[in-house]
Design goal:
The protein is of the alpha/beta class. It has a single domain, classed as Rossmann fold. It is 31% helix and 21% strand. It has 5 helices and 7 strands, in the order ββαββαβαβαβα. Strands 1-3-4-2-5-6-7 form a 7-stranded mixed sheet, sandwiched between helices. Strand 6, helix 4 and strand 7 form a beta-alpha-beta unit. The two termini are 23 Å apart. 37% of the residues are buried. It comes from Idiomarina fontislapidosi. Belongs to the TRAFAC class TrmE-Era-EngA-EngB-Septin-like GTPase superfamily. EngB GTPase family. One of its GO terms (molecular function) is metal ion binding.
């Protein structure tokens, strides 16, 4: 892999869209972030970009009901998709989110990768699995991030990661699993490495893989 890297600290907010039709022109490269309403998605984006308030965090799960668009450079976008799961929102809103996710995954040509965030204590819940299978069916590579990894001790973290990687084989697609902690700031290198590969169109090799010292 080349030494060229993306500077995620330059990310800026572009727009919020209620659906795919309101997104910027379908050109360049987009990488989407998705997860259950309490998976720490906004915190992960803020940690990645080293910007405390780039993506708004909320004490109320499910507050993010729009597709939020951030740009790291011209034609390079990070997409913050609406949270899903047990959020205390009307069924009508949940169904609208589902339609937006479906439409986005199936029709967005600039989408080159999907980061699915899951609480390490509850990985691969039914809705997470549905989303990943959906992405695999659309030939979209997936990085499954086990967030809030600081909640487990190192031994439990390693065990959970190994089990999750084994479980990911069943998706029969390009699904990589890593641990992540916004609080302790580990897993950032693995996230950046994968995003770089997607943005720069590079094929990873064994030598490229970086194992976290914190797992």
């Amino acid at each position: 892999m080349s030494e060229k890297r993306i500077n995620y600290q330059t990310a800026t907010f572009i727009t919020s869209a209620p659906n795919i039709r309101k997104l910027p022109e379908d050109s360049g490269i987009e990488i989407a972030f998705a997860g259950r309403s309490n998976a720490g998605k906004s915190s992960a984006l803020n940690t990645l970009t080293r910007q405390r308030n780039l993506a708004r965090t909320s004490k109320t799960p499910g507050r993010t009901q729009l597709i939020n668009v951030f740009e790291t450079a011209t034609g390079q976008r990070l997409i913050d998709l609406p949270g899903y799961g047990f959020a205390k929102v009307p069924m009508e809103v949940k169904e609208q989110w589902q339609r937006s996710l479906s439409e986005y995954l199936e029709k967005r040509k600039s989408l080159k990768g999907l980061v699915v965030l899951m609480d390490i204590r509850h990985p691969f819940r039914e809705t997470d699995q549905e989303l990943i299978y959906w992405a695999v069916d659309c030939d979209i590579p997936v990085l499954a991030l086990l967030t809030k990894a600081d909640k487990l001790k190192q031994g439990a973290r390693k065990s959970t990661l190994l089990k999750a990687r084994q479980a990911a084989i069943a998706f029969n697609g390009d699904v990589q699993v890593e641990v992540f902690s916004s609080l302790k700031k580990f897993g950032i290198d693995q996230l950046e490495q994968k995003l770089d590969q997607w943005f720069l169109g590079e094929t990873p090799t064994t030598d490229d893989f970086v194992e976290s010292d914190d797992t």
